[in-house]
Amino acid sequence: MNFDVVGLARILGRRLSGREELQVRLWQNELRPTHTRLCGVHELADPDNAELLRATAEEALAWLGERAPAGYEFVLTDAVELQPILDLGAEVVAVDAVIQLAGSNLPAARLAASHVRRSSSGTWYAGDATCNWSGPHQTADAATAAVQTARQELTDQLRMTGRPDLAATAPRWPSIPVEPSPTAPTP
Q1: Upper half-sphere CA count for residue 104 (Cβ side, 13 Å)
Q2: Rounded to 5 degrees, what angle do the CA atoms 104, 108, 111 make?
Q3: What is the bridge-based pairing of β-strands 124-127 and 132-137?
Q4: Buried residues in 37-67 as b, exposed as e (16+ CB within 10 A)
Q5: Do the Cβ atoms of 118 and 140 come closer than 8 Å?
Q6: What is the DSSP letter of 10?
Q7: Chain segment 63-96, per-residue pLDDT in tens
Q8: Which residues contact 83 (CB under 8 A, 6 or more apart)?
Q9: Lowest mean pLDDT segment, chosen from 4-13, 23-32, 92-101, 157-166
Q10: What is the mean pLDDT of the chain?
C-alpha cells in the first residue's frame, strides 16, 4: 500500500530527485517482480528499507493532502480516498459533507454535489465522474445554473427535514467545479 501511495503522488505530478526516483525503482523491482509468483500483499525484506518506504509514503500522502479540493481531505484506509471534511465550522464546507451529515435521502442531493463538464460532442452536463444528473446543456453557464438551483433546493429540503444547521452552511459551500473541455480526438 505504501508503494501505491508513492506511485499515486508521482502520477499526479509529485517530482522526486534522481536518487528518490532510483529508490522507487528498486522498491518496484522487489515488490512487483516480473517473474511469476503468488498474488497478494508483498513486503520489503529489509526492515530499514520498509521503514524508508513508509516514511516516503507519509510524505506523498501529505503532498496529496496539500492538493485536496477545499472542504476535502485525502485519507488512507485500504486505499487513498478523497473524503469530505465533516466539520461544520470549517471555512469551506463541501456539499458532500452536508449530504453525509444529513443522513437522509434528499432528492436534490446528487445534482447539488455535481460538477460541470463538457462532453466530446460539445454539450455540457452536470454530474459526477460516472453519471450525468442534468443535461445536455448548450453552455457551461446553463449546466452551472442547474446545479445552483439544486443547491437552493437542497437547502430548502434540509430546513424541511429539521436540519437548519446544515442549510446554514450554504454560503460556505465551494463554487461549482467546471472542468475544462476535453481535447478533441484526433481523426
Answers
A1: 12
A2: 120
A3: antiparallel
A4: eeeeeeebeeeeeeeebeebbeebbebbeee
A5: yes
A6: H
A7: 999 999 999 999 988 888 999 999 999 999 999 9
A8: 72, 73, 74, 75
A9: 23-32
A10: 88
Q: What are the cell numbers at 65?
A: 493532502
Instruction: Quote the pTM value.
Output: 0.76
- Mind listing the pLDDT tens digit for each residue in 129-159? 788 889 999 999 999 999 999 999 999 999 9
What's 35's DSSP letter? S
CA angle (32, 35, 36) in 5-degree steps = 95
Helix (H) or strand (E) holding 48: helix 47-65
Which three cell numbers, joined as nine digits, stand for 118? 463538457
Which residue type does 168 have? A
| Cα 115 to Cα 93: distance, rounded to the nearest angstrom | 16
